[in-house]
Amino acid sequence: MVDVQGTVADGFEPVRDAFADNFARRGERGAAVAVHRDGRKVVDLWAGTKDADGGGEPWRRGTAQIVRSATKGVAAAVPLLLHQRGQVDLDAPVGTYWPEFKANGKERVLVRHLLSHRAGLPVLDTPLTPAEAIDGVSGPRAVAAQAPAWEPGTDHGYHAQTYSWLIGELVRRVTGRTLGTWVAEEISGPLGLDLWVGLPEAEQGRAGRVADIEAPAAPASAGLRVRAKASVADAYADPSSLTRRAFAAITPLADENDPAYRAAELPASAGIATADALARFYGSLIGVVDGGRRLFAPATLTMARTEESAGPDRVLVVNTRFGLGYMLHGPASPLLAPGSFGHPGRGGSLAFADPESGVSFGYVTNGLQKNVTADPRAQALVRAVAKSLAG
């Protein structure tokens, strides 16, 4: 029986039960979950080990974890906040800020297309090596030269890896700062969050600060809520499909435990955070957390969770829903309620907010499972939160 550490507020005991059950029945290794409601922490739990093979040091309060695509939700806040400050026009062509991007039929790609996965750029004709992916130059150059896979703005498909260089370079062109630096200076620092897009050297040196993640697994269709369609499995198995090519934009898979990768500023996939930092971050998008400041103005919050893309996803194959940078509640990514918005990370992690209930949620794990969205451990926790709210 795993020893679950931490606390839950009265009424949120079902979340503790579900968290313990994840270790007993769903193959959990090391993990943490945090929930805030109306700016107050109501769940703060952790258990297991920092080493994904089940040995080594125990997971502790403050253990951080790479969160893969849950990073996208953090990264999306940057262009939205720049828009809120009048520095970015979401309806302007990307080439307005990044002239080299106009090549090969991308003159009409809008900033909002990048955020809503409508840019037509989920794949690279020539994949990048792990070293090229993190050098800060090769990725932006590759997406700027790439021809779209479909007419931008007419359809959507998940930009699994290319989102890093599309959003990251846009932010750099507008602000003169890397996205990771902007997050550190404008979000994590002011809010006191253990959340990084590019782990600083000082944190690298703190022994055991970041839990090891198990070896990357090839993406599989099993974690998608719509599982029965042979076309989904076929897409993941076909090396020529947009699905396989999107996830293989970096080839071979990078070692996510490598200090160089942890230091890389990859807004699509390499963010590192504690569960509580993710919950507090999303809480700051919908309200004030722990006496801090609110990030999103009401109009920005509305834009973030207003549907921009919906229906069959050219990459994930099943139906998906996106706002501006955020996945919305739906069959492929069930969240707490219809108005929830957030982002999962392939293999497990999940973070989101639900403005109507005042809930913000963060879950991180080092025991990756073969899924893209709708991880069964995360979903068990979400159901437990819903049960707790229902009383």
From TrEMBL:
Classification via SUPFAM superfamilies: beta-lactamase/transpeptidase-like
Q: Which residues cross the membrane?
A: none
The organism's superkingdom is given as Bacteria
InterPro entries per the UniProt record, alphabetical = Beta-lactam-related, Beta-lactam/transpept-like, Beta-lactamase/esterase
- Report the residue ranges that make up the Beta-lactamase-related domain in this protein: 19-381
What is the recorded name of this protein?
Esterase
Species this chain originates from: Streptomyces cinnamoneus (Streptoverticillium cinnamoneum)
